Amino acid sequence: MSKPIVTRFAPSPTGYLHIGGARTALFNWLYAQHTGGTMLLRIEDTDRERSTDAATAAILDGLKWLGLTWEGEPISQFARAERHREVAEELVAKGAAYRCYATPAELDEMREKAKAEGRPPRYDGRWRDRDPSEAPAGVKPAIRIKAPREGETVVMDRVQGEVRFPNKDLDDFIILRSDGNPTYMHAVVVDDHDMGVTHIIRGDDHLTNAARQTVIYQAMNWEVPVMAHIPLIHGADGAKLSKRHGALGVEAYREMGYLPEALCNYLARLGWSHGDDEIMTIEDMVRWFEIEDVNKGAARFDFAKLEAVNGVHMRRMDDAALTAALIDTLPYLPNGEATLTKLDDGKREQLSAAMPGLKERAKTLLELADSAGYLFATRPLPLDEKAAQILDADARKVLSDAHDALLSVEDWSAASAEAAVREVAEKAGLKLGKVAQPLRAALTGRSTSPGVFDVLAVLGKQESLGRLSDQIG
């Protein structure tokens, strides 16, 4: 019986959870869910100068918002330094690693010589086979792995295929620094082994690390996990992803009004596909995700595509669920806190009633909140520039007639309001739009809105007539 699959996400807490990291976490989570396995979380906080508690909190918050859960408590890499030292000493005892007493000056000399000879800088192995009794006094040694010098180290990668690395290029790299601190290369291997990680899914910028890490696994006679190195995300122009392309923290996408489900859908489709399926639920992704289906080539981030995907998810959402999602997101949106203070039961009911019309034209929760602004506006409504232009003297005369007609409507609804307004248009010999436009401007303060009769129905008779009266003067 095969052992359960264990994946891990291992971010460095030196900043927010950026979009590339979020996709790596998503792929690890999807694969664990798909196979009935588990995903673990390790915080790679060995860089003490740059690691912060605030960054760790932001990463955890971002993962939770996306719905990417992990098993157990997050593991601190820094807290395991003693274990990393223990394994380094074990490798020395086995003859698979050695103490290196080369001074910084000697290492500089090696680098300069290699540069002069047109070779990549490599440690020359001068302490590989020397007796420790020759150690100079007062020099604290680093510990280096004895990398194989002949042949190749082969990484069988689920995405990149079979990747071969000539061992002569690996050199005897450091696993424990002279100050007793483990290197990243070493700590990662010890942690992944001790955590029982079976599958390592990470960015392909780590592919060269995979060869060196394989050397440590083999030196310890540990099983090498399955590797899958996924392509990096580029901008729409093909350049490496930067902030101008969308390399922002996950929290920025929440503030821009994206649904977590839609962001996961979009990120999953960056480098992975399932036939022609563009729009996927979380359940779809879990059911279909196979790591071998990830492309080798870099994916391109496209805000327009993300917006389109988000818009589809919003329109497909149940109105009550979308209303709840909007309310939950308000604290993160510009002026959202002010809207929340006005959100009593009556306004909540109005928002829910308006949702079918609102969601048809919005692509983000930010746009949705903006479109719903007319519900929370206080009288007299401020008019935007276009609405003010619409409400000229002729328009106000039309408004006056519409107000009188609507005043006599008893059974208030979108249909009854529309019938009354149509009658006004017919009597005046106007097209319906010539009456609807001034109505929209007076009711919402804008030239665009959901269907004007839906707006009348949602606002109710008293509020609608009041807003019209304000503009008739």
From TrEMBL:
Listed InterPro entries: aa-tRNA-synth_I_cd-bd, aa-tRNA-synth_I_codon-bd_sub2, aa-tRNA-synth_I_CS, aa_tRNA-synth_I_cd-bd_sf, Glu-tRNA-ligase_bac/mito, Glu/Gln-tRNA-synth, Glu/Gln-tRNA-synth_Ib_cat-dom, GluQ/Sye
Gene name in the database record: gltX
Motif 'KMSKS' region per record, residues: 240-244
EC number per UniProt: 6.1.1.17
Every Glutamyl/glutaminyl-tRNA synthetase class Ib catalytic domain range: 5-307
Source species taxonomy: Bacteria, Pseudomonadati, Pseudomonadota, Alphaproteobacteria, Hyphomicrobiales
CDD domains (alphabetical): GluRS_core
Native species: Tianweitania populi
Molecular function via GO: ATP binding; glutamate-tRNA ligase activity; tRNA binding; zinc ion binding
Subcellular location: Cytoplasm
Pfam family, one: tRNA-synt_1c
Protein's name in the database: Glutamate--tRNA ligase
